[in-house]
Structures are given as C-alpha cells and as structure tokens.
Amino acid sequence: MKLDSKTSVITGGARGIGLAIAERYLDEGANVVVADIDQAAIDEAAASLTARAEGEAGRVMGVRLDVCDRASVDAMVASVGERFGGIDILVNNAAIFDMAPVLEVTEESFDRQFAVNTKGLFFTLQAVAKAMVARGRGGKIINMASQAGRRGEPLVSVYCASKAAVISLTQSCGLSLIAHGINVNGIAPGVVDTPMWDEVDALFARYENRPLGEKKRLVGEAVPYGRMGRPEDHAGAAVFLASDDSDYVVAQTLNVDGGNWMS
Ligand code: NAD
Fold this sequence. Notes:
The chain is an alpha/beta fold. The chain has eight helices and seven strands. Helix 3 packs parallel to helix 4. Nicotinamide-adenine-dinucleotide (NAD) binds next to helix 1, helix 4 and helix 6.
C-alpha cells in the first residue's frame, strides 16, 4: 500500500471526485479526513468510508469545514493534529461553479467563486503547509485545477479564471515549499460526471436553450477517450502525487482528462 499510515485531508471530500480520492486513499492505507461544508454529505460519506475500512473505523474522520473561513480551516488543522498527530497529505479539492454570459456576471458570483476556488484553496494550503513545516516531516499537497483553467470559455469566464489562478498558485507554492520537503502539484480534470456537472448541465440548458442532459451527452461524446470522466478516474493520479513515487515532481499540474481538448 502506497500511503500506509499517512494522514490525508480531502476538502470537498464528501462527494464527487473528492470522495473517490478518499476511498482510494483508504484502500492505500491512509487515514482519511473528509472536510466539507455539507454536514449531511459528510455524515453519509463517513459512514460509507467507515464500512469500507472494515473494522478500522478509527481511520476515518469527518470534519465540517468552510475553506473561506480562516478560523474553520485552523480548527480543522488543529482537530486533525489532535486525532492523528498531523497532516501528511492535503487534497485541496473543494470548489464551486457558476455560469453566466460575460455581460451578465454579477460581482457576487465573481467574489463567491474566487472566495472558494482560489482564496479558500490558497489559505487552506497555507495553514496546512505551516503545520507541515512545524512538524518537520514534509508533505504532499494536491490542488484540484481544471481544463477550464487552461483556456477561457465564454459562459464560464470567472470559473475559468479562478482555476487558472489555481494552476499559477500550484507553480508558485510548489517552487517555494519544496525547500521544506512539501511537494505541491495539481490535477486538471476535463469533464467529469459528478453532482457538479449536473448543475453545469442545468445551467447550459438555461443559457443555450437545450433539453436537460443534452450538453452532458455532447461533451462526453467529444472526449477522445470516448466518455466523460468518472470520479474514480482521478484517484490513481491523486495516489501518485500523494506517494513517495512523486517526490521529484514539483509544481506540476497533471491533465487527467481522457485527452479532452475542448470542453
Ligand atoms: P462537487 O460539486 O460534486 O463536489 C464539491 C464538494 O465541495 C462538495 O461536497 C461541496 O459541499 C464542497 N464544498 C463546496 N464549497 C465548499 C467550501 N466552501 N468549503 C468546503 N467544502 C466545500 O464537485 P466535483 O465535480 O467532484 O469537483 C471536485 C473538484 O474538481 C473541484 O475543484 C472542481 O472544480 C474540479 N473539477 C471538476 C470537473 C467536473 O467536470 N466535475 C472538471 C474539472 C475540475
């Protein structure tokens, strides 16, 4: 097992890609902390992970976390430290999505997306990195970016920009923190069939006047691999970037997108 005895925190880990990574980390021997803003989803995820841990329920922890709230982030770091002695792996995965034509984007929508996707990601990384430095054992931080951060798109300008910033922060933080033995890398998924994409599909239906489900079908057909991504498609890359196998990989964002070149 590649992550034996490591302690991992997965923000936004209660569903979607984050939950698939949590499941795989558990299988690879890690303690898993699901840190999410949605308490009902945390309870459900923690119950299914505990069942998966087969008698090792102590390896699973659920924490309510709002990545936008610095006190909430500090409290999460402290409670994981008390329970497991520290954090070895952070998957900075929590994010939100909104859609509007450029001429209709509101300041509230802009601020909300940057607050979670960019500022929340950065200060969660900073708080966890400080704890890692104080502990002196290094660590692994994985930022969840997106193909949307590689190029602009007309209806999702702000989300794209918030994810481009994640790719940039991954480079800067990666180059800075490797001196402390902390690898910061990222994953850029393409189109993934999660609850988030159900929301995306509903927004496309509204803005492009399409029947529900049509956009999802079309984007899936356009992926060279032949289908949309599934949450579990990202777990292997997340294990690699959390394991000793990636010690010499610094400040990279890895595309995990089925060859998707247009989203
Ligand atoms: P999702 O919406 O299914 O899950 C996101 C989770 O984040 C939810 O459990 C939600 O409760 C949590 N969350 C939201 N705001 C939070 C906050 N302030 N603090 C803590 N938790 C919060 O999303 P997903 O599709 O699984 O996406 C996971 C990551 O992958 C995100 O960073 C997303 O931007 C990225 N991504 C997704 C896709 C896709 O097609 N689904 C594509 C590229 C990148």
